[in-house]
Amino acid sequence: MSAARARRSLTGSSRGATAVRSFSASKTPTPSARPMKWCRAFSKACAGSASTGTKARRSAARTLPTFNRSATTAIARLSPDLLKQKREEAARQRIPWKYDRTCLTLSGDERRRMELSGLRPAVRFLVPTGKTSYVDDVHGRIEFDHEQIEDFVILRSDGQPTYQLSVVADDVAMQISHVIRGDDHISNTPKQLLLYGALGEKPPAFAHVPLILGTDKKRLSKRHGATSVTEYERMGYVPEAMVNFLGLLGWSPGGDREIMTRAEMIDAFALDGISGGNPVFNPEKLDWFNNQHLARLDRAELVERVRPLLQTAGLWSDELDSVRREWLQRVLALVLPRVKRLPDLVEQARPFLAEHVEYEPAAIAKHLSGPDLPEHVGALAAALREADPFDELAIERVLRAVADARRIKGGVLIHAARVAATGKAVSPGLFEVLALLGKPLTVARLQALVNFLRSA
């Protein structure tokens, strides 16, 4: 396959087995279109008008006369009860059930009696003898013996087309060039190829890709957690990471490249990069991709991504949109290495934006039990009140001087000051944290810790 064909297959001139075939002209995204819009995966080739979607929905109905003329259909009037009996009998004999073409031998009188009884027929495709083969763009040549394919239903007894007829009719109407779908649809391909042949239409290129597995190496399903793209949006993943992660499941651009934009993946995409094994959906790997793409965002854009979450948490103020905007960008840049998802940014930034902090019990037990700690922390607060300038180097110099003067290890003050400033036992570099908090808030929180320790 050429690179141009591969790019077309990724950017919209192909369909997946569950792709939406109808696009509304409304400005409000449909539930099915919403995840695609979030991932910015729409392309001009997919953005059909409402009239195009209507054509696709009607195409299966227009196709039926062609089958009637081509003598490739058979009217089946077996009752559901009789079909059930035949299947159960095959199951008792432990043989695979296959429609036995009973209705082909019905006499005229039998057919009239069925019609008078109200039994409505279904329409089956009469599978000819022989074999069907095609060249799969991933697996190579695949051949099917028609002995293994029963006369499949194309119109149900209520007149509605089945999946097999619908996808072929729609793909012909929409001039689909490539069908890229999961390996579980390989068995549908010979039936669809037979339908294309009966219609006198050239079939598209088919490519079947390995199915995605969960971490337990079983087929991905709801039991593995979130399976809807919109759920991942709510969980705080950014679309750049989601597209990158999904794009590399079962496909490789070659080399050791992992972090890629959608445009870069489109340029590099080729079906020969699809691996033979089933890829595993690893949430930890997705977290890593998300962190990497968050780090690649412009700082101003990062603020915009986290703004709604900060507003919901009650941590947003008008100053963050004006005089403190650059300061907020520095805060987010500082905590970003510890972040996997957008909600993590909120929690990491909370000590900088909240008026007060709560001390984690684990941090209290680990770092606030030393002798004379209230006096040590009080001395540090007093010394930092006089520090000028109040930057990282000055803060470190003052803290170590206080530790030396009181004949304690610097770690005692560092850990206590971290709990005072953030409420946590772990944080980004303490001196960077205190510099961003600023002198007034740093001193106030150190003094609040002194009061807490004396009242404990």
Secondary structure blueprint with pairings:
Elements: H1 3-11, E1 14-15, H2 33-38, H3 50-70, E2 73-76, H4 80-92, H5 108-116, E3 122-125, E4 131-136, E5 140-145, E6 153-155, H6 163-173, E7 178-182, H7 189-199, E8 205-209, H8 229-234, H9 239-247, H10 262-268, H11 283-296, H12 299-312, H13 325-335, H14 342-353, H15 361-367, H16 373-385, H17 392-405, H18 410-422, H19 430-437, H20 439-455
Parallel strand pairs: 1-7, 7-8
Antiparallel strand pairs: 2-3, 3-6, 4-5
Helix pairs in contact: 3-6, 6-7, 9-11, 12-13, 12-14, 16-17, 16-18, 16-20, 17-18, 17-19, 18-19, 18-20
Index terms:
456 residues; mainly alpha; Rossmann fold; Glutamyl-tRNA Synthetase, domain 2; Helicase, Ruva Protein, domain 3; 4 domains; three-stranded parallel sheet; three-stranded antiparallel sheet; 20 helices; 49% helix; disordered N terminus
Structure, described:
Helix 3 packs across helix 6 (163-173) and helix 18 packs across helix 19 (430-437). The chain has 456 residues and is mainly alpha-helical. The protein contains 20 helices and eight strands. Residues 1-28 and 41-57 have low confidence and may be disordered. 49% of the residues lie in helices and 8% in strands. The longest helix is centred in the first third of the chain and has 21 residues, at 50-70. The chain has four domains: 3-77 and 120-209, HUPs (Rossmann fold, 3-Layer(aba) Sandwich); 222-293, Glutamyl-trna Synthetase, Domain 2 (Glutamyl-tRNA Synthetase, domain 2), CATH 1.10.1160; 297-353, Helicase, Ruva Protein, domain 3 (Orthogonal Bundle), CATH 1.10.8; 361-455, Arc Repressor Mutant, subunit A, CATH 1.10.10.350. The chain has a three-stranded parallel beta sheet with strand order 1-7-8. It has a three-stranded antiparallel beta sheet with strand order 2-3-6. Strands 4-5 form a two-stranded antiparallel sheet.
